Known about the structure:
By secondary structure, the chain is α+β, with helices and mostly antiparallel strands. The protein folds into 2 domains: 3-79; 96-309, 4-Layer Sandwich (Deoxyribonuclease I, Chain A). The protein is built from 9 helices and 12 strands. The strands form 2 sheets. A 6-stranded mixed β-sheet has the order 3-4-2-1-12-11, covered by helices on one side. A 6-stranded mixed β-sheet has the order 5-6-7-8-10-9, covered by helices on one side. Helix 7 (207-220) links the parallel strand 7 and strand 8. Helix 1 packs antiparallel against helix 3, helix 3 (38-54) runs antiparallel to helix 4 and helix 7 (207-220) packs parallel to helix 8 (238-247). The termini are far apart. Residues 84-90 have low confidence and may be disordered.
Amino acid sequence: MSRLRLVFLAGFWPLCVTVALPHARGFHPALDSAGHFWMHACAVLAAASLAGLALGLRRTALAGLGLMGAALLAMAMATETGLPRHARAAPAGPGLTLLQFNTLFANRDANAVVRMIRASKADAVTLQEVTPAMRAALESLRDAYPRQLHCPGATRIGGVSVLTKLDGLEGSCAGSRLLAAALPVTVDGQSLAIVSLHLKWPWPHGQNEQVASLGRFFALQRQQLVMAGDLNAAPWSATAKRLAQASGTKIAPGYRPSWLMPELSSGLRPILGLAIDHAFAPSALRLADAHVLAGAGSDHLPVLFTFVPRDRH
């Protein structure tokens, strides 16, 4: 076997293992961490498999393509991407529009955030990395969002907030290190709690322990939960699944890359971006629409979700 083929195989098989490991993401947080970049690993494996074909390693290349196909199928099933769903058009009448946005603690254009929130006309807004300066800017939205719950964080990264124009009871904070805020609202006569979340980075950081502690905070809420936040986790991750189970909700289907390194061109977001901003809703609600909005000074894009009662078609 030629040296070129040996060098190729030395890199190809570890790449195959990288693509295969996330199938076992529920067994250990380390495997879940690898799964957050599953889509990107599949793209690299596809390119490597084509290179293998060019080198005459047909069976090896086909094995790589088979692994990639199995991974893509698993991701599609987890996100319901490509599965039949209701039309995207948002319905007229009652429902819940929810805007999710990580404002970025270093955001230098708080006015852009305020303008974006106002223009969205969302019923409720969940925010992360809300610094004291950003919180002060949000006060200008009191006319549109009179109810605001701000839960400060323990670091300079900031806290989490919920803004809403809907009536409801007093809200609560999970604590400066758990970074969750819950604000009850009334939607179509139904009592819900809007929850804003900001999870820590995945393993080996404290994300796994944070999710376990958040389960106790969720249990204290008397209402069904509608949650949104920066999960620092992919939609197919074990982390997202555990959050859904702990809160009695289901993650909103779809794949929406919302984060990209600020050093890269925004045009690369659909290719290189990570889908880490998500929403969850109880079984009584279904997703009618979800799409990213234009940026507002953050490395995240805002995501606007529209939920309607499950029995409405």
